[in-house]
Specification:
Number of strands of chain A: 16
Distance between the termini of chain A: 51 Å
Low-confidence stretches of chain A: 1-44, 512-520
Strand order of the largest sheet of chain B: 1-4
Number of helices of chain A: 15
CATH class of chain B: Alpha Beta
Radius of gyration of chain B: 10 Å
Oligomer: heterodimer
Number of helices of chain B: 2
CATH topology of chain B: Alpha-Beta Plaits
Structural class of chain A: alpha/beta
Bound molecules: iron/sulfur cluster
Order of helices and strands of chain B: EHEEHE
Largest sheet of chain A: 8 strands, mixed
Strand order of the largest sheet of chain A: 10-9-8-5-4-3-1-11
CATH topology of the largest domain in chain A: TIM Barrel
CATH class of the largest domain in chain A: Alpha Beta
Shape of chain B: globular
Strand content of chain A: 15-25%
């Protein structure tokens, strides 16, 4: 029975079209409110069929994103709409970051690249097509050609695609046919009045539409496509770009609308806007949200469609674990030089078995650490944010100076949960620390109480402490959540004694210029 | 009577190629071009030239 209740909170029972695989459930409570029904919890409170689909998918499971790698291939350059935050000289910014140009590939080149990467990176579990335009524009020709070959050559890899949704209803059957069990739709509005401020035009049924008409058609197609996918049991993640002053509060409506149509995850991402990108918004001074503004909207949507907070807005040709990008190692020239690569899933299989074994132990130890905090700390202490330097594997295993991003955890009496990430410049790129970069890091994690690192030098340590952020290396190489809970227990005691002060009310800066990191 | 692509502004996305009802558009030496012999400006087929309607760079124009 508990299974049924939590399914409710995962799927959001469709008023319109519940997923075909879902059992008829009672008008149950809106589900649990704490992170205990998060995606990371696994089989205990998730339909096993769904868990099977998401457990190794870095974008669909917060837990998996610590362990598994994805790869995007940029085979779809055409698009069928215009977004005000997009400049078509660059990649689509629905999935990717504005101002980034991916290496376009033909389906044949893409296949070759995928096989080569799969051989090098055993963590690889997912191949996605996210542009650089819309994966379903121009009839989705390259997208489906790539999937067709892939399904034959490397059947163990999961396939997913991203779309703005305009052409989605026409392609749902094809999507189902290729066993694509994850689709991302970017939905920024459910009200054409709002949409008209985001989309100047669309191309639909051989015609260019503008204004309210355009937004209305796009909205209807998005909702229809979403319902068609969920009714076939295909998992749908909805991306929304948060645009302050245009759709920030409206995103709550979007969250409700997509939840009621069975969306599995809702990912609210910040608008990244810069005049240098030459986008309409960039040139007109439309700004992106601050870290706290983003968190306020994300928190308000919690309890609706399950939120995703680990999206990195990767490039359309990103390769590797989320937060890293090894694309440079696999450019078309380098792949060409590698010659023919054979398909062999041995390494990937044994890696997946290893993760499977580790998972079981982790669920138990997290629960124990959480119980300890619950018993020893009252419920009156406010949660705090902790920045973590990690290379993956859910461990604190990165040097402060080498971190290209910090993962942000919120920890409180209710437990520890991942709430986001902040990209920074590497503080000691090339060996010596530089003061400007350190200021950038401080601004990016200014709302955090502590920063967990594997190692940190004396200078940055001192600057952090002066800024009121405690550098902590005593949990080096330990698991993140357990360490965060242990730290919180200690913090609550010190707060009680008046030795530390709460950092509530601090905000942080979301970097605009940063791209998903390229390895040097 | 034909359309042309202002190649300096073209992003080489290929959206126009997929929409042209007369297969008049193709990729030549890294940029898309319209074959004036095949282009009908979409007359009798659609309300407006399809390449111009879909082009994100607005670079498909009367020749
Ligand atoms: S863009 Fe978001 S959804 Fe896509 S791979 Fe990156 S994190 Fe996952
Ligand atoms: S105007 Fe019509 S026929 Fe001519 S190139 Fe454009 S789409 Fe093709
Ligand atoms: S649609 Fe426009 S930008 Fe794209 S290839 Fe055709 S002419 Fe170039």
């Amino acid at each position: 029975m508990s299974n049924v209740v939590s399914l409710d909170s995962i799927f959001g029972l469709g008023e319109l079209a519940p997923p075909a695989t879902m059992p008829a459930a009672p008008e149950a409570a809106s589900g649990c409110s704490s992170s205990s029904c998060g995606l990371s919890d696994g089989p205990a409170d998730m339909d096993p069929a769904v868990w099977e689909k998401v457990k190794n998918h870095p974008c669909y499971s917060e837990e998996a994103h610590h362990y598994f790698a994805r790869m995007h291939v940029a085979v779809a350059p055409a698009c069928n709409i215009q977004c005000n935050y997009c400049n078509r000289k660059y990649d689509c910014s629905n999935e990717s970051r504005p101002g980034v140009v991916s290496e376009k590939l033909t389906p044949d080149q893409a296949l070759k690249k995928i096989l080569a990467v799969a051989q090098e990176i055993p963590q690889l579990s997912v191949i996605g097509i996210a542009g650089p335009g819309d994966s379903l524009a121009a009839n989705g020709r390259n997208t489906f050609a790539t999937f067709e070959m892939l399904q034959k050559k490397a059947p163990d890899l999961k396939l997913c695609l991203s779309t703005n949704g305009l052409a989605l209803p026409d392609h749902v059957d094809t999507i189902a046919q290729y066993n694509i069990d994850h689709v991302t739709i970017t939905i920024n509005m459910v009200d054409p009045e709002v949409g008209a401020q985001i989309y100047p035009w669309i191309f639909y049924k051989h015609k260019r539409w503008t204004g309210l008409d355009a937004a209305k058609i796009l909205h209807e197609q998005q909702m229809l496509g979403l319902e068609m996918l969920t009714s076939r049991g295909i998992l749908v993640k909805v991306n929304s770009v948060m645009i302050p002053g245009i759709n920030d509060e409206h995103l709550l409506e979007v969250n409700k609308a997509v939840k009621s149509r069975g969306a599995f995850l809702h990912n609210i991402m910040p608008l990244i806007s810069d005049p240098a990108h030459g986008t309409y918004f960039g040139l007109n001074g439309q700004r992106g949200p601050t870290a706290q503004e983003l968190k306020v909207v994300q928190d308000a949507c919690e309890g609706g469609a399950k939120l995703m907070r680990h999206c990195r807005q990767c490039r359309a040709d990103a390769v590797g674990l989320l937060g890293e990008d090894r694309g440079e190692e696999f450019t078309a020239d380098k792949i060409e030089a590698m010659g023919i690569v054979e398909y062999d899933d041995e390494a990937r299989r044994s890696y997946r078995e290893h993760v499977e074994a580790e998972r079981a132990g982790r669920h138990a130890s997290k629960a124990a650490a959480q119980a300890d905090v619950r018993d020893s700390v009252g419920t009156t202490v406010d949660p705090i944010l902790i920045a973590v330097a990690t290379k993956g594997g859910e461990r604190i295993n990165e040097h402060f100076g080498h971190a290209k991003e910090f993962q942000i955890y919120e920890v409180g009496p209710g437990g520890a949960k991942f709430v986001g990430h902040r990209r920074v410049d590497q503080y000691c790129e090339g060996g010596s620390g530089d003061v400007d970069t350190l200021d950038g890091v401080l601004a990016a994690i200014n709302d955090c109480t502590a920063v967990f690192v594997a190692k940190i030098g004396g200078c940055p340590s001192k600057s952090l402490a002066e800024a009121g952020i405690e550098p902590v290396d005593r949990f080096a190489f330990d698991y993140i959540e357990e360490s965060a809970l242990a730290y919180f227990k200690d913090y609550a005691e010190r707060l009680d004694q008046g030795v530390v002060q709460s950092r509530a009310g601090q905000d942080a800066v979301i970097r605009t210029g940063a791209l998903t990191a390229r390895r040097a | 009577m034909a359309y042309k692509i202002k190649s300096a502004e073209c992003t080489v996305c290929g959206a126009c190629e997929a929409e042209c009802p007369n297969i008049a558009i193709s990729l030549k030496k890294g940029t898309y071009v319209i074959d004036p012999a095949k282009c009908t400006e979409c007359q009798g087929q659609f309300d407006s030239p399809q390449c111009a309607a879909v082009c994100p760079a607005d670079c498909c124009v009367p020749a």
